[in-house]
């Protein structure tokens, strides 16, 4: 955000007006990073689902009622 808008209190200029390629590369890297993080979450969720399907639940079975 500092690169886009600058900081008036610190007298920093907007960097995106000076270094256009820098801002494009930062935006691209942020997008790639978010895509990689979402992919990792998806892989973790699928892996956890498959892992927990291998083991039965540790809860006791529900009581059976006999209506005779």
UniProtKB/TrEMBL annotation:
<keyword id="KW-0812">Transmembrane</keyword>
<protein>
    <recommendedName>
        <fullName>CASP-like protein</fullName>
    </recommendedName>
</protein>
<keyword id="KW-1133">Transmembrane helix</keyword>
<keyword id="KW-1003">Cell membrane</keyword>
<keyword id="KW-0472">Membrane</keyword>
<dbReference type="InterPro" id="IPR006459">
    <property type="entry name" value="CASP/CASPL"/>
</dbReference>
<dbReference type="InterPro" id="IPR006702">
    <property type="entry name" value="CASP_dom"/>
</dbReference>
<dbReference type="Pfam" id="PF04535">
    <property type="entry name" value="CASP_dom"/>
</dbReference>
<feature type="domain" description="Casparian strip membrane protein">
    <location>
        <begin position="2"/>
        <end position="38"/>
    </location>
</feature>
<dbReference type="GO" id="GO:0005886">
    <property type="term" value="C:plasma membrane"/>
</dbReference>
<comment type="similarity">
    <text>Belongs to the Casparian strip membrane proteins (CASP) family.</text>
</comment>
<feature type="transmembrane region" description="Helical">
    <location>
        <begin position="27"/>
        <end position="48"/>
    </location>
</feature>
<comment type="subunit">
    <text>Homodimer and heterodimers.</text>
</comment>
């Amino acid at each position: 955000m500092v690169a886009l808008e600058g900081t008036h209190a610190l007298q920093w200029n907007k960097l995106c007006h000076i270094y256009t390629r820098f801002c494009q590369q930062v935006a691209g890297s942020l997008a790639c990073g978010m895509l990689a993080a979402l992919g990792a979450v998806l892989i973790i969720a699928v892996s956890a689902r498959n892992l927990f399907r291998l083991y039965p639940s540790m809860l006791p079975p529900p009581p059976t009622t006999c209506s005779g």
